[in-house]
Amino acid sequence: MTDTDNNASSTTALTAVPGGVNAQIIDAVNQTNAAVMGSAANQGAATAYQKVAQSAAFAVQDATDYSRNVENIAMTAQGVIVAKMLENEANIPIYTPVLAILQEMVVAASTNMATVGVTATAIATEFPATKT
To answer: Which of 45, 54, 100, 131 has the maximum number of C-beta atoms within 10 A of its C-beta?
Structure first.
């Protein structure tokens, strides 16, 4: 193929449109804009989903920390109470109800952690990861 052949084929392929802009350039720009705008919406939705998922994970972590802290407090208090009971048998009726309350605290913290886990899972699962 000669330079003349290249110029001839280029000339027929690159025809100018009114206003001086080639139709292929306009088409390329339109296709690029469509591709960028289409992916931008999905990227925005993906970023929003990521933030929601992170927030859900933080909620589960916080509930886990809370449960662990309640258990530590309850175990420490139980140790002190048992020591007081062993020290003096007269303390047994005084401290027995406190042991029950401490157990209720631990159960409530565990229930809270389970509720937060289920709720966080539902939120992360139901939140759209992409633009529909």
So the answer is: 45
